[in-house]
Amino acid sequence: MALATKTPKRNSSEDPEEFRATLGEHLDELRSRIIRIVMFLVGATVVAWFVAIPVYDFINKVVSKSIPKWLTYQEVFHSFTGPFMLQLRMSVALAIAASLPFALYQLWMFVRPGLKKSERRPIRILFPVSFLLFALGGFLGWMMVSPTVGWFCSFFRDFKGSALMQEQGTMVFLIIKLLMAFGVGFQLPIVTFLLTKTGIVPAESLMKSWKHSTAAIFILAMILTPSGDPLTMIAMAVPVTVLFFGSILAVKITDKDKGRLSVDHPLNNLD
Fold this sequence. Notes:
By secondary structure, the chain is mainly α. The protein has helices spanning 23-49, 52-66, 82-111, 117-143, 145-153, 170-185, 188-197, 203-208, 210-224, 230-263; strands at 73-76, 164-167. The protein has ten helices and two strands, in the order ααβαααβααααα. Strands 1-2 form a two-stranded parallel ribbon. The radius of gyration is 25 Å and the shape is flat. It starts with 22 loop residues before the first helix and ends in an 8-residue tail after the last helix.
């Protein structure tokens, strides 16, 4: 009797050529990983429901301190369903933030078997760098909360006797969008590094057209910043521009080192 052979797991091979999954197997695995992400998101939303109000109060307190004392400020609900919907929105927002690392991990586990060992190493490095840049961008965005709110409130001086009354959650979600915008904007160097490293966009072309690249970054910052004020746009665009050209320089340095190593290799000096 012939022994039944066990089908190897898709993630068990170090060489993607040793085991190629069929299209159906790819779709099944993709579906299972999407289901895991959705289940994690639902569970995170349930947990976030119990911490949504403390987080909201903390952010709202910071925003309130940024509003000048001379300006009358009050937040109101416009419907009796407002408190429930606000807590639900905060829960979902916190759950999405908590689920992002898990979603990226599931994406990595799906893509990983199709990559060779030499191709996995740089991506392993880029993942923590990406999280670090996202956190750095979010921190910078948090530092811009007070100047941004103060800058907008300064225009109330031109309208004597006016007061600021907003729907509950308006200021808090504006701040959340601001933090997300800075975090996403700081991912541009990662995207640039991948595009130039893979040769899709030559590094020399980006360096030669540095004026156009810089203008494009400032336009992108203007689009991403939810407040739309020039102060926040400049605060995002300047460090992103520095990181953008830094990533191009890193590609050129690593490529130069790789070329030097290939020239100095002992097998190239046999003649």
